[in-house]
Amino acid sequence: MPVAKKDFKIDWSSRSELRGPGEGSLGELLLKLRDRLDPEAQGVSISYVDGRIMRKLNREHRGINQTTDVLSFPSAPEKGAFKHLGDIVICLPVAEKLAKKFKVSRRREVETLAIHGFLHLCGFDHEKDDGKMMGLQAQLEQELLGEEPLRMSLKRGRKPGSKVKKLKDGTRVVVTGRAAKALLHKEEVKKTKPARKVKVSVKKVVEKPKRGPGRPRKTTVVATAPIKAVKRTAKRTRAPRLRSGVIS
Questions:
Q1: Distance (Å, whole) CA 241 – CA 99
Q2: What is the torsional sign of CA 53, 59, 64, 65?
Q3: What's the rounded mean pLDDT across residues 25-32?
Q4: 183-198 tens-digit pLDDT
Q5: CB 112 within 8 A of CB 28
Q6: Which helix (H) or strand (E) holds 116?
Q7: What's this model's pTM, rounded to 2 decimal places?
Q8: From-to residues of CATH 3.40.390.30 in the chain
Q9: Which among 55, 125, 126, 179 could bridge 175 via Cys, Cβ 3.0 to 4.6 Å?
């Protein structure tokens, strides 16, 4: 059974100078998406950012060094834990440009991006499903908003044949055309290149011949001067002199 509205928690955060729709307008849409796509979900997070932050997130998590309109970060809570679907990050400056291009309000454009991000949190992937996700997105816009679906002008995913190149500073950028072909050729050459032979110098150790058993060792004789005999002479003692007088 679907959980009540009070049990569906929406966390809001903004790091953009522009203002995005809040609980009053976008909250009802998110609740309808929960009831339609994942009735047991208990929470979701919505973050509004500027172009600089979105570019950093896109570079770190997708290897694309440019900004985009929306990113989704699904969560995987353990069984029995609070079922938080994940985070939807929307770039308001990009949403503003798209709104002007399609001649709609910023709120209307953010609604389309929110539906797109919510579908990703529920496991849909437009890069692998042959248009199933984008078809469902258009259907949800018509049913939940009562309006014609907006086109997603930004291309989803990388171009065929593109490659991710790692720069010296550690950042990654997506390259196409000749740059992608050169990178692919470099990788193929690296795989087929034979391993470099390492020369190992071996030091020859010459063992000295061991002496055979019973072979006498050479001894050195040190000549010493002859020791002279010391002639001892007996010491003559004098006879005691006798005194004259009385013996008491």
A1: 151
A2: positive
A3: 94
A4: 777 877 777 766 666 6
A5: no
A6: helix 106-121
A7: 0.63
A8: 5-155
A9: 179
